[in-house]
Every structure is written in structure tokens, then in C-alpha cells.
Amino acid sequence: MSNYPRRPPRPIHPARQYFSDEDIAFIEKETGRLLRERVTLGPWVDKFERLGAVAAGTKHGVAVNNCTTALEIILRAAGIGPGDEVVVPPQTFIATAFAVIHAGARPVFCEINPSTHSLDPQGLAAKVTAKTRGVILVHMGGLITPDLPAIERVCRERSLALIEDCAHAHGASKGGRRAGSIGIAGAFSYYATKVLTTGEGGLITTNDDELAKEIRCYQARGQDLSVHEEEVFIRAGRSCRMTAFSGLCGVTQYRRLEEFVARRNRTATIYDRALESDTHGVERLLFPSDTRHSYWKYSFNLPAEMSREDLQRLLAKDYGVPLTWSYWPPVHLMPIMRKLFGGRPGDLPTSEAVMKRNVSLPMHAALDDRDATYVAESFVDAYRRMRKL
Fold first, then answer.
1. Minimal CA–CA distance to 242: which of 202, 291, 298?
2. If 0-12 CB within 10 Å is exposed, 13-18 middle and 19+ buried, where does residue 335 land?
3. CA–CA separation, 155 and 162 (whole Å)
4. Statement: residue 7 has pLDDT above 70
5. What angle do CA 161, 70, 99 make, to 5 degrees?
6. Closest CA to 359 of 330, 328, 316, 384
7. 183-192 average pLDDT score
8. Are 31 and 252 in contact (CB under 8 A)?
């Protein structure tokens, strides 16, 4: 056993929101003004949209109430609906598939690459049919997959709309291309556990002027925004506006984006060094130097013979360190998906196998070097103990 404290220096959370004392004071001050002026949309949401677009490197940013809505609006604005198919990975939050269903289309589930936890290009090509209109690329954990060129090639050759699910990927990039600027549009989440948070919220980013007009229309419940004299509705939209308070929170968070992503990368470096030491059998997700990971999660694969549940219990009991994983069961095996589309275990054997053995170490902006070092050493010690059992 290593000579370090058996309990953490302070409680270790797997993920958590972070607002500095300075930002909390600023939000408290501005909230009073919001209550006297405007509580939905308004200047803070406008600023949030601009900051989000700048961070993604796009011309347009459109704020909505959550990421599920953002994905659905992108699909609808792109003309994808009843009779169409959209390829999605099984390792994602179920909302990715729900957005396709809410748009009227059918999600088709595709194998992931075990080395990236993202869409497998060969699997994607095999899933394309005459009905396929789009592909949702999830930047799983905050990593833009090294397979991106091959995925883009499939989309280009088959005339498919590439849509980015950027829920995990604020501040991520590959080859200088930022998350949210790669496909026809990107959808970001601002739930409490994400890299940036507004409590609840979503943002759509795009460089396509015409698509942006359609997206704005849906943001306004389907209203024709070119008509100023009266409210005229031309699309079947729904209420999906962002509150001014969420916009205010989002502005303070975007001011910290570089700080947050740098902190997460520093924590990841500490984890990397520990896992390189003596953790034979662990499969880390490797990526080229032109990639900036935003590290919503620090994920990797355990050996197939090791029980992640047993390791999770050991880390929690003896070290006070939470070990988690995202997501289980795979989306195609969720009860609602099996009911709607008849999915069965074994449909995606590679994805199902790797999703049973991937795990994540704690990751958030409030972790400091001491926390990260404790987590890393605890994991290595517990892992070695498990290997000897």
C-alpha cells in the first residue's frame, strides 16, 4: 500500500458546477436588475449567444432551453423528418436519440470505436441506406474523434448532414477546427455537470446563414421573423427560449472557458502519468497532438475480466473516490428504444462490450492538483489490489 492518506483531503465529487465567489457576487448583483427589466431572452442572452459563437468559431449562435431541443431544431431546420433515418452512436445520453424521434425521424444505431468511444467510420458506412439523411457525431467525453476525416468523407460521399452533439465539448478542437463549427451545426448543453453551465440551457452554433434563419424561426416557436407588424407562424414550433438568468450565468461561465478547460487538462495530465505507471491492462483513449480535449470526462477502458462494480465499491469504501461511467445501458437497449425499434442485446456487440468496461475518474474545474493526485494514486492502488485478487 502507498504511504498517502486513506481518505481524501476533502470530499471528492465525480462532477460538479463551479462559480467563483467573484462570479456569484456579480450574478447576485445583476439578478435584481433582471427582475426589474426582462427575465426571458434580452441582452444577457444576446451576449451569451455571441460568446458561444465566438468560442465555437461560428457566425451564429442561437440560445434555447436545452441541448435536446437544440438537436431537434437543427434536424427540423435541415429538413429532416418523417421517413428519414439519422445515424447515432449507442454511447450517448438518450436525449440524442430522443431529438431524432421528436423531429419525426428514426434513429439508427451504429457501432463505436473502442479506442475513441465515438462513431466507427466503417460501421457508419454500413448503416447508410436510401433513407439516411443525417449523422449525429457525439464528441464523447469532450474528445473530437481522430476518425473525423473518415466520418466526414462518408457524409460527403453519401450527401448526409453531419450534426455535432457538443454537449461535452465546450472548448474542444481538432486541427484548429472547434467543436460546433465542423458539421452543418452544433448543439451544446449547459446542464449543471457540463464544462460550462447555466443550470439548464442549450446553444446552436452554425456558419450557414440560411440554416441560422430557420433555427431562429424555431427558437421563436416557428414565427416568421421577417413580419414585424403582427405574429405570423410558418413552422410548427414550441416554446424553447432561454431565460435571461440562464444567459447571465452563461456569460460568466464563458469568461472562464479557457481557465476551466486548462484546469481539466491539467487534471488529465496528472491522471495520465499515474495510469502510465503500473496499470497493465488499462486502455486509455489516445489522440493526436492536434487535438484539444475538453475533458468533460476522463474515461478509459478496464480489462474485460475486471469488474468495474467491484472496483467502484473498493474505491468508494477504502479511498472515498467515486468511479463512474457513461452510459449504461446503451441507448439502443433502453426499454423505450427496444419497444419502439426492437433492439436486442448483441445488435452492436463491439459497443456493448466496451461500454461494460469503460470508467471515468472525477473531473471538474473545482479539482486542484492535490485532489487529482489523491484520486490518481488511489485508483492505481485500488487497481493493483484488484489485479491481485
1. 202
2. exposed
3. 7
4. no
5. 70
6. 328
7. 98
8. no
1 pLDDT band, cuts 50/70/90, is very low
The domains located in the chain, with CATH, are: 21-254 (3.40.640.10), 257-388 (3.90.1150.10)
What sign does the CA torsion over 36, 41, 42, 43 have? positive
Q: Is 154:106 a contact under the CB 8 Å cutoff?
A: no
**What number of residues does the chain have?**
389
**pLDDT at position 38, please?**
78
Band (pLDDT 50/70/90 cuts) for residue 33 is confident
All cell numbers assigned to 168: 461535452
- Show the cell assigned to 113: 470505436
